Amino acid sequence: MNPMRSLACVSLLLLGGCAEERAFQKLTNLTAKSTVDFKTSAAAYVENANELRRTAADGNQTLDDLARGRAFEAARLRQTWKAAGDPLSKAALQAFDAATAFGRDPTLTEPALPLFGRAAPAVTVLKFDGAAYDGLVKQLTALAKPPSLQEEASFLLGYAKQVDDAYNKDMADTAAGAAAATEAGAAAKAATAKP
Amino acid sequence: MKVSLARGWRLAPVVLVALGVSGCSSLYLYDAKRETATTAFSQDFGKLAFPEVADQQAYIRQLAQDETRQVTLTLMASRNARIATFVDPQKGAAPERLQREVEGRLKQILGTWPEGLEADPEARKAFVKQLQLMRGRPEAMWVHAVALSDFKTAFEGLREEYLKSLAASHAAAVDTTTGPALLCPDVLAAPVPALGDLSIYASMVVACRNLDRETHKNPLAEVTTKPGGFLPDALAAIATDEKAAAVAAANAKAIKADVEAAATPKRDGTESAQVAKAFANLKADAKDATDVAKALGAKSVADELNKWLALQFGTAAASGADAPPADVKRAQTLLDLASALIGAGDAAAGRTPEISAGAAQVALAGLQQRLDVAQLEAQHSAAVMQADQDRASALVYEMADLASAELALACGGAGVCAPAAPSVRATSRPALPWPSGPQGATALNAYASSWVAGRIPYEVAGYHVIQADRAYAAAKAAKTAQNWKSLLQPAVDRMLASAKGGIKPEQPAAFAAAIAGGALAGRR
Fold first, then answer.
1. How far is B399 from chain A (nearest CA, A)?
2. What is the C-alpha to C-alpha distance for residues B411 and B424, in angstroms, rounded to an integer?
3. Does A135 contact B at CB distance below 8 Å?
4. Interchain contact, B83 vs A99, CB within 8 Å
5. B77-115 burial, b for 16+ CB within 10 Å, e for fewer?
6. Most buried of A109, A147, B238, B518 (most Cβ within 10 A)?
7. Are B200 and B162 in contact (CB under 8 A)?
8. Mean pLDDT, all residues of chain B
């Protein structure tokens, strides 16, 4: 290698620092840690959300059971009064129908009577996919990994080759440019020398 | 890499020198592979979404609707079952049982009878008449009047309402500017109106007969000061809610001002005015990057974020409990992250760290999270207060209907008691057996109405408090997930900038070529 070229390269490489490398690795490691923390929290969130779904379904089922039980009891009594047909039962039926019609919301559908043989409520649970978080952590881990001596040497060798290639190209371009300029100069001189 | 032996020997000095480099500076060599890998990571990070949080928010909204419907259905079925037992001829003594139920429920709502009423049925009846007056006026006014122990205001509102209703049904016969002294004879002489107007009519009759307008006291003034009943508890909850809502609103306003100040860029756009000021004050004393991070609030940002994470991803929020303590390790990680963003290179080089755009972004992300949470808290407080107000209003309506039922049972079905005299009450009893006749119809309908207008809305409003807690927790989780990305984004940006930077091979080559070219030119 040309001594001037070596000097230039060495001067620049002496400036090459480990500070940026350390800062990069630190940031990468910390971001990876935060991502792992967030994945843990998100998984716990999904677990709790699903627990709420199951609890809510059970709660609604209990309320529904209660409603069915009470509706069944009232319907049974009403049927009894209707079947009896005596004046007291008729009065009971009339008063019951009048009072229970009071304030009834037509948009509400009262539960059907069957109490048994009903299927358990379907609960749609959330599925947690940690793969996206894992993928990020994997990428960060690879980025944060310090290079081995061999890798570093390989990188530097490759880098030096690229510098060399670029230098050769620059020099070739410069030489070609100089040759073209010399040729053009000679041509111009020849042209002016001709009468 | 294919390098010829001869060429390898030519490159050896460069490689050896580079391997021996151990000095630290901000200059470094560009690595194309690292740029590719970091760019891929940055893109994947940008794509990271939180569909579970969005799903849960939608589910919570649907759950609130389903739950409200189911609770209403269940309570309607309960009401009908109760009514069935009161009309069932096989059970006997139905009016007395209904009366016990009505009085029991009234006492449950009030917590206790006012002083002296427990042992005095007549005085209690007068009190119940006053409760009946509550039916039919705007609920907000009534709740306000109850809270202020200002029964007179409530009565005035009721009077206006009644005068309007009379004016509507009797054309110009009623002068709405006249006072009760002129009104009462008309009221007392008027025929008993249809069921729909009965409660207002009855209220006015009772008011005309018993109300001394100048000296009358709020019947609930004493009751509401004694906790234990549904109504005193609901009113106490409203008072607490009002304070909480005021604090939450003030907090959100203050944080919003902080965020706006922090987000205002300096003229050169490099950093926010607030962050720059904080940094300038502390720069001289800063020993290392961690101190600066703490001073800028990174510690509190990290602590707060972890509290939010713990709160949102735990069950505490749904039950309204306090947040669990922060995870110290996780807070430390985030603090370290903020520190790393605040000029790690400067600290390593022994210089006072300079503020970086990344640090300002971390501080802003933390402020944004605080603002989001404060605004959600303010919304949550308002929703809870509304639910508690609905509960109190529902109880007022329920008491008024229960009072109508009580009066119908005690006074023979007309809805109006004659001046207390056993003989009068006895003669006014209906001839028809229960539940036929006006006594049964009025009492049962008023009792049924007490569920529809009061008891069911009261229970539903109780669920609204739980639903507001759930919605708050779900919204906070969504904001936290979103802000988590904002908090880490500066680190990702910093990594990408680092990977794209550095000395590219063309630069030293061009430098060397320039020197060589100069030397050659000099030789010529």
1. 17
2. 9
3. yes
4. yes
5. bbbbbbbbbbbbbeeeebbeebbebbbebbeebbbebbe
6. B238
7. yes
8. 64
Reading the block at residue A156, the tokens are 């530097």
Flag whether residue A36 sits within 8 Å of chain B, measured between CB atoms: no
The residues, any chain, with a CB within 8 Å of residue B29's CB and separated by 6 or more, are A13, A16, A155, A156, A159, B502, B503
**Are the beta carbons of A72 and A116 closer than 8 angstroms?**
no
Residue with tokens 């006594």: B439
A62 at the B interface (CB within 8 A)?
Answer: no
Closest by CA position to B424, among listed B435, B414, B433? B414
3-state secondary structure of A105: coil
Closest C-alpha to A67, from B303, B150, B76: B76
Residue bearing the bigger pLDDT, B87 or B263: B87
Mutate to test the interface with A, among B5, B15, B336, B486 (most CBs of A within 10 A): B15
* B147 token code pair: 């809270």
Q: Please check the confidence at residue B137 and state whether its pLDDT lies above 90.
A: no
Average confidence (pLDDT) over B294-316:
39
- Asked if the C-beta of A78 comes within 8 angstroms of chain B's C-beta atoms, the answer is yes
DSSP, collapsed to helix, strand or coil, labels residue B229 as strand
Q: Which of B294, B360, B335 is nearest to A26 (CA)?
A: B335
Task: Kindly list the residues from chain B whose CB atom is less than 8 angstroms away from the CB atom of residue A159.
Answer: 18, 29, 505
Q: Which residues contact A149 (CB under 8 A, 6 or more apart)?
A: B19
User: How many CB atoms within 10 Å of residue B294?
Assistant: 17
List the structure tokens of A163.
Answer: 């510098």
The whole-number pLDDT of residue A155 equals: 85
Instruction: Using DSSP, state whether B503 is helix, strand or coil.
Output: strand
Tokens 């002294």 belong to B181
What does the alpha-carbon distance between residue B99 and residue B351 come to, in Å, rounded to a whole number?
A: 85
ipTM: 0.74
Residues of A in Cβ contact (< 8 Å) with B515: 4-5, 7-8
Q: What is the pLDDT of residues B204-251, one digit of tens each?
A: 444 444 433 333 344 444 444 455 678 778 877 887 888 888 888 888
For residue A88, the surrounding DSSP H or E stretch is helix A87-101
**Least-confidence region, from B47-56, B149-158, B438-447:** B149-158
